[in-house]
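To the wet lab folks,

You asked to see what we're planning to order before we commit. Fair enough. Below is the target structure as tokens, and below that is the sequence we designed to fit it. If anything looks off to you, flag it before the synthesis order goes out.
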């Protein structure tokens, strides 16, 4: 198995918390270089996570001819600039969600990827989960009939004002940070964009949304709702992840579920003919799965699981939600 030589732009917390282990577990990933604005911190990450090289600037890493693919966990407002730069250097890119602050910027990023004949994939790790794929398979198999209503939510702890999620200039707020999960799951299960978007948000004094809820309506009359918020006990690292999908023959509800949780996840099927069944899905580390999948795109010609069409469609819907709440 050929290993793809990866570089990481930045020493962000999400890399430490989640992606580092995923990349270490990925069988086709070689941790080649890490870059940071602080050379000492980059060197510390090199030693801690087993990178071969450390750079004191992002540009130095992009100029390294060994690097084939780049993971970008930078703040939301830096995704566009550094993804474009990486693509122009001929690097394949895995960029954290949300891919860009707007649909227009996301379109430009995919255009540059095409022009440079490289892959760009939005890092929605949970989309690679066999749990999500199992639920989608139930929908496609007609287990609960035609979907009439779905709801999804991701609610987390509140954060101190110093946290980047709480900064307007960094595209902070719960829709950008959390709503993208709930909305993208709805999009995955219903398979289309809503024809109508209605949403309302609660803002703090720094003009970021701390709680947002919305209603989607679809061409066939189906409805969906989402909730996202940073409202639980401050800095307690707690969260509430849930979904329910109701159809013409029954329903599917999350039981033991977290968007990016590994382990034994479960959902319950209830049908109108009396069937009630708990399904358990053994779920590996999602960040491992996304790293391996983009690696296979590079080495074996696979198509990115999180497609450009999916990301652009999601960006359009997020734009509509943000416009609705007056972000």
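Sequence we intend to order:
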């Amino acid at each position: 198995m050929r290993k793809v030589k990866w570089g990481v732009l930045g020493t962000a917390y999400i890399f430490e918390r989640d992606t580092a282990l995923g990349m270490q577990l990925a069988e086709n990933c070689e941790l080649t270089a890490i870059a940071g604005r602080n050379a000492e911190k980059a060197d510390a990450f090199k030693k801690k996570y087993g990178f071969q090289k450390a750079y004191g600037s992002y540009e130095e890493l992009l100029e390294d001819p060994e690097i084939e693919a780049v993971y970008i966990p930078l703040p939301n407002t830096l995704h566009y600039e550094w993804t474009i730069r990486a693509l122009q250097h001929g690097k394949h890119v895995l960029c954290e969600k949300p891919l860009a602050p707007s649909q227009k910027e996301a379109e430009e990023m995919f255009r540059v990827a095409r022009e440079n004949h490289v892959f760009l994939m939005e890092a929605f790790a949970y989309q690679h989960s066999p749990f999500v794929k199992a639920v989608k398979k139930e929908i496609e198999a007609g287990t609960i009939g035609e979907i009439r209503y779905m709801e999804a939510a991701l609610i987390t702890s509140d954060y101190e004002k110093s946290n980047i999620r709480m900064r307007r200039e960094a595209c902070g707020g719960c829709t950008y940070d959390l709503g993208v999960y709930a909305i993208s799951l709805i999009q995955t299960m219903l398979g289309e964009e809503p024809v109508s978007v209605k949403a309302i948000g609660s803002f703090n004094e720094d003009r970021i949304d701390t709680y947002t809820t919305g209603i989607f309506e679809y061409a066939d009359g189906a409805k969906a709702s989402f909730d996202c918020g940073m409202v639980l006990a401050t800095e307690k690292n707690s969260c509430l992840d849930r979904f329910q999908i109701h159809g013409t023959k029954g329903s599917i509800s999350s039981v033991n579920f977290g968007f990016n949780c590994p382990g034994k996840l479960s959902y319950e099927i209830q049908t109108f003919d009396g069937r009630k069944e708990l399904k358990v899905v053994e779920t590996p580390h999602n960040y491992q799965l996304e790293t391996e999948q983009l690696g296979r795109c590079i080495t074996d010609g696979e198509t990115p699981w999180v497609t450009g069409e999916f990301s652009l469609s999601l960006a359009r819907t997020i734009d509509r939600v943000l416009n609705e709440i007056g972000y």
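Structural context that might help your review: DSSP finds nine helices and 14 strands in the chain. The CA atoms of residues 297 and 303 lie 6 Å apart.

Thanks,
Computational group
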